[in-house]
User: Fold this.
Amino acid sequence: MNNKKNHSGKIADHVQKMGKSGIREFFDLVIGCDDVISLGVGEPDFVTPEVIRERVVYSLKRGQTSYTSNQGLMSLREEICKYIDKDYGVKYCPKTECLITVGVSEALDLAMRALVNPGDEVIYSEPCYVSYNAEIKLTHGVPVLIENTVKTEFSLDIEQLRDKVTPKAKILMLNFPCNPTGATLNLEQMKEIAEIAIANDLIVFTDEIYSELSYIKRLPTIASLPGMRERTVFLHGFSKAFAMTGFRIGYACGPAEIIAAMNKIHQYTILCAPIMAQRAAEEALKNGLGPMEKMRQAYEKRRDLMVKGLNDIGLECLNPKGAFYLFPSIKSTGLSSMDFAKKLLEEQKVAVVPGTAFGACGEGYIRCCYAASTEKLKEALKKMKIFVAGLKK
Ligand SMILES: Cc1ncc(COP(=O)(O)O)c(C=O)c1O
Assistant:
């Protein structure tokens, strides 16, 4: 007897309607292909610095295997608040204004769930990190889309923001340096955005996960501008700049009542982030930023290599000032983003992500992550050159 039941009709409507992450969908194709050079997944190729890994071993050997407070270890919250004060110029209280989460992913989810009522508008811009649109829909918010283009060098199109903000808008989502474009905001833009946020009583979520990976003098966070600390939720974590993706540690800092609301959800759903990963994050900050700065310098060299290489091939590419992504145009090839990525994978075994994975306005672009060794990047460029030349024949 076949006892298998199909439950697809029982899945919640909004989940059923949700598409798969475009990145994962493409990488399902990559799995099973041998010898692929991947410029795909946005993950540092560096191993977490040894001193941080050693701290985990030490804490485990000392039997530190328990839950922590829901909000996270006080000692880690203190280190984080010190770091943000020193490097970003914003003071937060570790007792009431800082929450340790499982990656920025959880921090973003909590912030959305704590603030969005069904029907509230959340303004965000594409091309963007794959989770934003899905997160808004999961909380029954209404996504209000700004399409950033090469005209603003993929920075936030402030004219569109002015046009799209309505009395129903509650949240403005920012992520600069941006995944997938590497775009940044300048101070003037930040001030204009702050003005709009204040005039329209918006809460700003600023996803700062790439903020240390900046190749110009680091800009302040929007939270540090006058009138913004009290309306900003600062989301950050250790995955990218510290090469700690697998540790799954992030945090949110912001007004005490918002952090308390987020912690309410966190305590019922997650309890707390793993203690050994929290210890590792504490070590990362205590140990100083030396290892991270070395990685940043390496990324900068790789960016220069790739920007030149892609432009030489004829794939027009801006020189972004942050993160570890390039977003070159493939329009000259006449292929769609998906076809370009699929064919490049099939013919040359180089994996890039179709720009459409980050929103429809990513059509005509691909995302290349340059967090890979120089040798691999050179090899990828060689193969991409052969591929593009082959298309012209
Ligand atoms: C912009 C952005 N925010 C958040 C995340 C998720 O980060 P975490 O590993 O801290 O959950 C990513 C991961 O790629 C990202 O690119």
